[in-house]
Give the backbone structure.
Amino acid sequence: MKEIFPTIPSIPHEGPDSKNPLAFKYFDPNKNVGDKSMGEHLRFSMAYWHTMNGGGTDPFGTVTAVRPWDGVRDPMELARIKMRGLFELTTKLQIPFFCFHDRDVAPAGDTLRECNRNLDEIVSYVKELYQDYPTRLLWGTAQLFWFPKFMHGAGTSPYPDVFAYAAGQVKKAMEVTKELDGENYVFWGGREGYETLLNTDMGIELDNLGYFLRMAVDYAKEIGFTGQLLIEPKPKEPTKHQYDADAGSIWGFLQEYNLEKAFKLNIETNHATLAGHTMQHELQFARTKGILGSVDANQGDELLGWDTDQFPTNIYGTTAIMYQILLNGGLHTGGLNFDAKVRRPSFTVEDLAAAHIAGMDAFARGLEAAQAMKKERALSAFVDERYAGYNDGIGRKIRDKQTSFADLEAYVIDKSDIQVGSGKQEYLESVVNTYI
Ligand code: XUL
Ligand code: CO
């Protein structure tokens, strides 16, 4: 079969001294890190929408990307070439998974029935590609934000016909995710929010969204989809305010609608930045509540207020992410999906490969640093010590909820020697530096 990316070789591991842009310097899937191989720890995934469909457009400029399928006009032929391109590129890069939105991979039609027909054709083609390539589906999702009908939202639209259309579309997207053995299914509420409160009934919108997700849980059961359902937080963009703003707000929402056992989170670094949180905060919150499911691996620009979806190359960032993932005992069915796009001036196919390599190498280094920090209890020994007061005495009683305000008042009322320790922040920051 003719290669789609003949200039991209199977990427070798050449080690840190290599100057070859198309080689791994740190990522080596067979290297053992703790009790697993690097490949088992780092379940990378390629995002179809950015890598196959991204052209480098921005509000001020047209497509810059040069791609092997430029000039192909027939939409179904184009869809097949790009899908085969994805399988070839992921295989050459040793990326085991991919993710897609329904409308990324096959052209839309005038009706949902027509959209489904096009999608079915591509899904059959993916099943053929499964025979020849090792790449598999990390998660599928429905694209409920591009077309004009979704301008006011999907599950939160004021218009029931749109709500119904979105439900029908998610039903189909869940079916194809199951058909392709997808390990998870993602809900990202791109337009589930508002532009202005002057026209918004928040009560109806939140209740409808809760009900929408309840029906999704029921349908997953009905068709025997056993993959993990994931919600992806983002505070804004494209809407001014999105209801799934961050891990904390989703946790509250899930509990209100009795959905907290059915969903975990797919947490994206750039979305955390937009929410005014660190990625570490979002991961640690989700981990603490037992809802850390998967990661959209990218990074933003702290100076910009929008979603730049850059490849994750910051080793402090990847170390913090991998530390939380290790403390979580891994991501289980989740993975590290490069929801990232090359910069507009990086327009060649070699840039696509180099960008993924850069992200994979940064995560390999982050993993090794995080594993050493965890093994040597570089941070956790201090954290355990800081809270040790709760292991016995009055602290134990508080943890066991065996006190009243009166008991606590009696305990402290004549105490003159209340002691606290140093938080040692600067020292701990220097400790992290020694592992990076
Ligand atoms: C948008 C975004 C989405 C989701 C899937 O910011 O992250 O691509 O990951 O819909
Ligand atoms: Co994402």
